Structures are given as C-alpha cells and as structure tokens.
Amino acid sequence: MLSLTILCTGKALPSQRVSSDELDVKLGALPGFCRSKSGIDFRYVAAPGETQSGLAAAALRDAMRRGRCEAASIDLLLSVSGVGEQALPSTASRILEPAGLPAGTPAFDINASCLGFLAALQLAASLLASGTYRRIAIAASDLASRGVDWDNPEASLIFGDGAAAAIVEQGDARTGIDAFRMETHPAGNTLCEVRAGGTRRNPRTGAEPADYLFRMDGRRLFRLTSELMGGFVERLFSGLPYGPGDVDIVIPHQASHLGMEHVRKRLGIRPEDVVDIYRQHGNQVAASIPTALHEAFAQRRIFRGTRVLLIGTAAGLTLGGMVLVI
Amino acid sequence: MLSLTILCTGKALPSQRVSSDELDVKLGALPGFCRSKSGIDFRYVAAPGETQSGLAAAALRDAMRRGRCEAASIDLLLSVSGVGEQALPSTASRILEPAGLPAGTPAFDINASCLGFLAALQLAASLLASGTYRRIAIAASDLASRGVDWDNPEASLIFGDGAAAAIVEQGDARTGIDAFRMETHPAGNTLCEVRAGGTRRNPRTGAEPADYLFRMDGRRLFRLTSELMGGFVERLFSGLPYGPGDVDIVIPHQASHLGMEHVRKRLGIRPEDVVDIYRQHGNQVAASIPTALHEAFAQRRIFRGTRVLLIGTAAGLTLGGMVLVI
User: Fold this and answer.
1) Are residues B139 and B254 in the same domain?
2) End-to-end Cα spacing for chain B
3) ipTM at complex level
4) pTM of the prediction?
5) B198–A193: do the CB atoms touch at under 8 Å?
6) Partner of B268 at 20 to 30 A CA spacing, among A169, A239, B51, B316?
7) A288 and A245, same structural domain?
C-alpha cells in the first residue's frame, strides 16, 4: 500500500442553480425533455462574474475550515481541471491568492481531464513518500458551462459547474492507495474534445466559434468505453487479494446516469454502495470525483478503514481507477 | 538524494528557421533591430501544418532512437508545455499515437509553464520511487509562434518553437536529485499571460483577439524576479553541503539573453559553465530547459557524476531549481 491520509475535503458551487425544468423553458424544449435526456434535477452554473480559480479557492477554504488546517501548513497546491482558467499561466497559480495560501507556495496544474483528481492523488502520495512535501492540497474545478454547445443536448445538458478540494498527508501506512491504474487509448482522442484554446486552433490559425465548444460523440465513446472497461477493471485489481465486489463503496466519475449505471452493473456493485450525486450536480468534469468523495465524507458514508473504489473515464480516452483505504 | 537516471534525451525543431535579419524585413524594422533587441541569431517556427503533439512525438522518437529504448517499455507519458495543443483533452493523449507508444500507455499533462520539465522530473522520480511506474517519458513542447504579438517586440522576438524529451528510470541511487524547490508568487500572476483559451475569456464570455496573444510586462517581471532570486537560490541550496559555485554546469531556462546573464551573475557562475542555446533557439517556453539539457548531453558537456543545476522562472510567477547528479 502507498501510504496516504486525507485530512479533510471541501466543496464549492457557483451561485446559480438551474433545474432541468428551467432549461426546458430556456431552450424551448418540451416539458420534461431536459430531465429525461440528462437524468438531472438541477445543476449549478457560474454567473458571468464568477471565476474558476475563485470557485477552486472557495472549495479549498472550505476544506481548510473543516479540517482546521492552516493555509501556511500547505506546502504544495495542485490544481486539476478538464479545461483551465486561461492558456497561461497555470490555474493553480491563480488559486493561491484567493485561497489565502502564502506567496511562495509552489503551485502547478495536472491535466488528466475528468480523472485529474485520481492522477493528483497518486502523484501527491508519491511526492509525500519521496519526502518532497509534507502536506499537499488538491483543488479540482471546472466551469463546463463556459463551453457547452446548447444546440447539442447530448453534450450540454449533462454538465454542471463546481469545485472540490482535498488536503492530504503521508500518514502512517495504515491508510492509503492499494491500487492505481490509468490507461490512455488514443482511439478515443477525438470523441470528446474542445479543439480551440491552445496552439491548434486560435484566431491566428483560423478557429471557428464552434471550435471553442465541447464536442462529444457519445455513441462511439460509450462503445469504446464498454469494450475497454472489463479488461481495465481486471488489470486494476490484478495485484490485489480481493476484487471489486469486496470494496465498501464506489465513487464513480459522475459522467452521466447511463454511464454510471453501466459501470455499476459491469462491476457487479449494488446501487446502495455507489455514491451518486449526479442528479443534483450533473457531470462536473474534474470536480466530479472529489465532490462525490466530499459528499460521501459529509454524509458519513466513509469511515476510517473504509475501502473506496474511485473509477471513471476521461477525454483522451483515459480509463482510471484507484482503491483507497481511508 | 532522490534516485533518478536519465536514460536518454531527444529534441525536435519545426521546419522553418527564421533569422533575426529576416524578421527585420518581415516586421519592417531597421536592419539589426530584431537581433539586438532579442539577442537571437535565429529561431525555429512551426509551419501551418505542423502540430505541437507532432513535434513532441518527434522529440520522443529521437530520444528512444538514441537510447535504443522500445516504445513498449515506457509505462507513463508526461507532457509539459506552457500552452497545450487544445483545451481538451490533454496534449499527452495526442502525443501517444504519433510517438508510437502502445494504446493503453497512461498519459497526462503537467502545467508549470516554463518550469514544467523540472516539476515533471521531480514527479517522475517520486512516481518511480513509489513503484507506480518503472520507466517514464517526459515530452516538452511549445509553439509560442501561435500566440506571440508581433506588434510587441519585447514579447515576441525572444521566442522560438520546439520540443525535447527525456526518458527516465529510478536507477541505483548514485544518480538523482540532490535538491528541488519551486515557489509560486502570485504577485507576478498577470505579468506574463495568455488570458483566453480557458474558461475566463472565450467567444461566450467575450474575448478579444488580443486575449489570445501572449502578454508580458517585462520590466515588472524582471524587477520581481530580481527581488526574489537571491533568497530563492539560498533556500534551494539550504539543505546541501555545497553551494551554487560547486555545481559543474548550469542549465538555466533560456528566458532571454538579459535574464540569463542576470541569473549567471547572481549565482556567481563563469560563462563557460552555463549551457546557452538561446542564440540559436530563442526562448522555447517549457521546451527550453530539456532542449538545453539534451544539447549538453549531445555536446558531451555532461557525464556520469556531473552535478547539474537546472534553474529558471516561469509565468505564475514561479521560481524553480533542481540540482541533478547525472
């Protein structure tokens, strides 16, 4: 086991709560369309003045408050998001000040799309084990609303904005990471993307407004994920003396109601053992898994010794999973 | 010492070589203006069809060829860049296929601006030490030409496009990282940025074409860096039984001729102990430090046992340094 202790978690939501019924009106859809299409009651959406770094900082302050953790005790800030706040500099460097972390705290970004939090946990545990740092904050945030295409129900209705944070230490090796695996399959590279925003498409290279919007080929994405998921789970658990049926609780990426149900059945997990916050949050991209983890702590579904499986897929296409003993 | 062995390095440059004399003509400047302003003889610039991921993949293939390293032996790909190829998914996931890495190789991005390679080396060493992976490839790439403002000499003439890669393993603890330090000072947050490309400014939130261009307040950046650098170097070496004067060779971020000279003098290093590729490459953002490292290997300036200081600044403002024993 790779030692890791989660000291505290926190979350933040933007100010606007938008129900699927309200979206029906906004989009001129038939009553009930958005709810049945998305499986969501409501999601939170950032107002024009709200920022991604501000939301991430609010989640981190929430975590510090809950854990009675001094800002000055944090010696690294990792920011994870599917899409960052701006092309340069890192989102992390923009979170430091609103979060109240001292100037000089190192800060950088990890980008593994919806699985950034998993990658960051594994990196944090390794950095703590190597003695590089003693206490690390991970802040996950995404404002999908800034880039969804409202003309495309499949790729817009499922998303919600949000942020979550966790503060971790090395601990005493009785808690930590029992297994971690990530696989990136470039066959899925173009099935889920925002083409502009970097060196590929911008005003200079000739971007169209649609290039700044999120695009998804849901059908092909679902097919590719289905093909890969079974073998992936087998490989994730291959070094362990127990299987997916032996974990206490599963925190899937809150990708979509259909996607989560598919993963649950594939793993052979009972519905009551899954943390499902999708109906009240939507898919919050990189903020989904840590928000669900935070909710599981807040709802006292996780205790010392609980064996948690975090699992999901991300644009890339990347599959990722982690077995965490709390 | 945190054990780390660099198995091999590689680099790649885009097809167009642009001299400062040619830039004088292109920009309608007086002969000699671009050379004296930038300190650069020539830099390489990507043609419209060339991509960041393609260049990164070429650098990685170069490293694999030099090190006789099989693509299938690499079990993690980290991509580092100041600005990525597109907002989503990660640049890393787009490098896998052109680099010839097998589908399923995990791949994600680290964004610490110009210091991404340093952050990635420390992360890689930690991931190797924790047993997560056995062989890690780091591919650094940037195409600054896609976002420089040609109306602003200070923020455009110094840049060049490029990519470099390194493949690392844990090794036997006789080589590795003697010291590593990063500090992010948000007072410098807006001194060096590309405001668009993320959730802050895009067509939906109201971006102007200039928001997609690189902006720099060189004077304030230089002043802040100067204030911080002395104390930073002291803190970097504070746990070591030797000082900056005792390293064999210094690889600074190739920020600018003036910036590099400033750092050299501050460290008290002789000009012949500095790896300076700036005149023939310009500032290649995140690709600068690994390209200079590769050149130092290629020019046989680094051997087993050489003590190398990697040091620089990045948008953020982040200061970073590493003492690496080869």
Assistant:
1) no
2) 12
3) 0.97
4) 0.97
5) no
6) B316
7) yes
